[in-house]
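Structure ticket #2291
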Amino acid sequence: MNRINLLVWALLFSDPLYAAQTFNASLEFEQRLFWQQSPQAQLSKGQSSLRLEAEYFLDWNDGDKQLVIEPFLRLDNVDDERSHVDIRQLLWSKLSDNSEFSVGIGRVFWGVTESQHLVDVINQTDGVENIDGEDKLGQPMVRYSYFNDYGTFDAF
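Resolution: structure written out below.
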C-alpha cells in the first residue's frame, strides 16, 4: 500500500505548476420496498442503501499528463454482500500528438453502437450493483493507443 501512495503523490506533485483539476461526486440514497417479508428472518419489507461515486481529474504539463481517480462505494443496511467498495479508475496517462500511454486501473468503452458489449473481454460486469450488465468494474491495465488518419489502434 505504501508503494501505491508514493506513486500517487509522485504523480500529483511531479509538476504541480499549471495543473488543472476537477472534482465531481454523486451521493445517492436508495430505498427498496417489498410487498411481503422475505422468508429469511434477516430481511424485512424495506432495504436502504447509500451509493457514493466520485471523480478526481488532474491535468498538468500543458495537458500531456493526466490522472483520473474514481472510487465507488455502496453501503446496504441489510445485505452485507451488496455493500462493496471498488476503484473504478486510478489511471495515469501520458499523451502526445498521436498516441496515449496509460497505466493503472481503468475501464474501457468502445462506443454506444455495440450490441454485444465486445469490451467485456476486458471489463468485468459488476453483478452486485446491477444485473443488466451496464455497470463495470475497474481492471488493472496497461494501454497504448495510436491515433492516425485510418483510426485508433489500441494495445492492452
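Closing remark: The two ends are 24 Å apart (CA to CA).
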